[in-house]
Amino acid sequence: MEDLQSALLERGLTVSTIPEKGRSLVTTRDFSPGEVIISQEPYASVPNNSSVDSRCDGCLKSSNLKRCSACQVVWYCGSTCQKSEWNLHRLECHALSRLNKDRQKSVTPSIRLMVKLYLRRKLQSEKIIPTTPADNFKLVEDLVSHMSDIDEKQLVLYAQMANLVNLILQWPEISIKEIAENFSKLACNAHTICDSELRPLGTGLYPVISIINHSCLPNSVLVFEGRLAVVRAVQHIPKGTEVLISYIETAGSTMTRQKALKEQYLFTCRCPRCIKVGQYDDIRESAILEGYRCKDNGCSGLLLRDSDDTGFICQQCRLLRNKEEIKQIASELNFLSDQAIKSTSSGHYQEATSMYKMIEKLQTKLCHSFSINLMRTREALLKNLMELQEWREALAYCRLTIPVYERIYPGFHPLLGLQYYTCGKLEWLLGDTEDAIKSLTKAVDILRITHGTNTLFMKELLIKLEEAHAEASYKLSSKMSSKIYPLDYFCKIDVCYH
């Protein structure tokens, strides 16, 4: 830990113990918005490969892939990634090649991640690959497992997974119990690796990043550049402040967030948002985001459950909305949602779009205009309409989501920036250059803080904005030229001259 503390101090950070939180990452100097607080390569990582989608084990890209001819499990995009992974994969390849085909099908990304974790420990102990203060197995051992908080069903699952890892490695010195405990550590500490547009690519374990605690009002954001995890400040962080990121999707009521954190990470959040649970402002916000709207279309009141539990009463006009009516609409929505998801996954986008529009119609009767469920439906419509290349309608739905994004996310949130980016791309495609400039500018203002400016994604975004400005200038100059020099003006000059 002393070596890690020394390495962190050079970056303006230290590890401190905070009551009820345990280890925490704290600043020893000020950090500005957009500044990188810390970055780390994974101790171990795997792509989210499936039977229909594969990615390179080295860079997580999905193009020009070739399968390892020996183990038939791992993919690489070329010799560069293959060579960079060779020290570890030669051991993994030998272990996986011993399995029959049925066993190989059971090797999920989680199983592979655990196997690679132990193989990396072996290579470091044999000094085949180096260790550093921020890259060693001791950091993995120091992670919290929460084994005492896990139910029996989950323990049995971890034991079954540990048995398979033990079968793959065939190392008698490691116990099933130890492997099961490490699976529990992965569940609480591993991170989903995403691309610049927050689409999941794989899973990685970043032991130093894992020291950073959660808040539903974080002062930092975790993004990825390839497999590199990068934590950036999204606001001014004074010296002596705990660095905080969000572990979960923060859009939703306090109860929804608390439930997600308890189930996945086994703790109760006590951030500034969560300590307001049960207070009027929190109840009101929950009713707007996840509750129901007044039956009177002219009323904007929110509904709360009545004391007799027969329905929900509007807090503005006191109109009662019957519980049975809500149940009936909710039942229809569940049925349609299942059908829409099936249609989308089958590639039947036109059929799915029709269903989502039916869902939207029902939700507008049932939900507040800032409803999370209504927003998700419109997000699904946006994606399906883009697949169908119905650009104008897709833009309309994208614009409908923006006010909700602005309400549920803080000013510098990558999802808000990416939604503005989508809006800007659609506007530019449709020739709405002035609107595109406004949307792309808002996207840049947010994403330069969350993503930095040196990634390929951000460079392409900045180029798009420059091109949009150039196109707007050209259109303006052309318009001005046509006003000053109409065609018949030149004709008149020619006649007079001759």
TrEMBL record:
Occurrences of domain MYND-type (ranges): 56-93
Cross-referenced InterPro entries: H3K4_H4K5_MeTrfase, SET_dom, SET_dom_sf, TPR-like_helical_dom_sf, Znf_MYND
Keywords: Metal-binding, Zinc, Zinc-finger
SET domain segment(s): 11-248
Gene Ontology cellular-component terms listed: nucleus
Gene3D superfamilies per UniProt: 1.10.220.160, 6.10.140.2220, SET domain, Tetratricopeptide repeat domain
Cited SMART domains: SET (SM00317)
A Pfam match: zf-MYND
GO molecular function: zinc ion binding
Keyword Zinc-finger set for record: yes
Stated name of the protein: Histone-lysine N-methyltransferase ASHR1
Organism (species): Liquidambar formosana
